Known about the structure:
By secondary structure, the chain is an alpha/beta fold. Helix content is 24%, strand content 34%. The chain has helices spanning 9-20, 23-26, 39-45, 68-73, 87-99, 161-166, 168-171, 209-217; strands at residues 58-62, 79-84, 101-109, 112-119, 129-133, 146-152, 172-182, 200-202, 205-207, 221-236, 239-252.
Amino acid sequence: MIESYYETDRALGEYLLFHFGTAEEILPYEFGPADALNYPVRCVTECLDASKLSRVARALDLGCSVGRSSFELARVCRHVTGIDSSSRFIDCAERLRRHGLVEFDYVEEGSLYKRGRAVIPSDIETERIVFKTGDAMDLPVDMRGFDVVLMANLIDRLSDPRRCLARMPSLVKTGGQLIISSPYTWLAEYTSPEHWLGGYSRDGAKVRTSEVLEKLLEPDFECVLIKDLPFLIREHARKFQWSVAEASVWRRR
Ligand SMILES: C[S@@+](CC[C@H](N)C(=O)[O-])C[C@H]1O[C@@H](n2cnc3c(N)ncnc32)[C@H](O)[C@@H]1O
């Protein structure tokens, strides 16, 4: 069986740096796109309307990876569940939750590495969070009624994104907020083309992911915000992926 990229040492270092690295570690060039840093935090702070949440709000972070958005959600939600299919990522997120700190290696050049430290801000109440392995396309039927569901950079990594989206009306409670952020990077290695939500032509017309998302969600959700969220993933000291996710926020009718 081929090992998923998200179970590898390389992905673990890359995502710990993406989620918890300092600006100096990730982007030590003053001419770089500094406004693309801190994406996992900005998915929460720039998209979630915290004023609509009760004191006992429940949040679900689907495809949480090593957990930075889950920790951020715990600032405003009493209960946070972070789910990811990678046991490597979930084990690491759980170690961070328990100990507040994890040391890791990230690529500098070729097989040279640097040592990094992921540290959870001390004002976050980590006992509010539960991390679990799971499949976003096959969630337990009794999982429902969340005030917030976040899917950051997940939909274009699922084999069947429609299956995951079909679960949203039962997952999000009335008035709750669904945040979907993605650069819509459709790749056959993750999603076979017949399951892509957009990024192809049909009968001579271009099919765009944002329009299909609206069609699928419209019956149960009202779109309340759409914005561009740039993000930067550092591959090594001199190579970066600069992307612009489209974040859309949906209120459950
Ligand atoms: C591109 S990463 C994004 C991670 C994180 N949300 C972020 O914005 O940095 C995609 C994540 O989704 C997870 N994933 C992929 N397929 C999944 C599935 N079916 N169910 C749950 N998680 C999944 C991967 O393990 C990985 O952590």
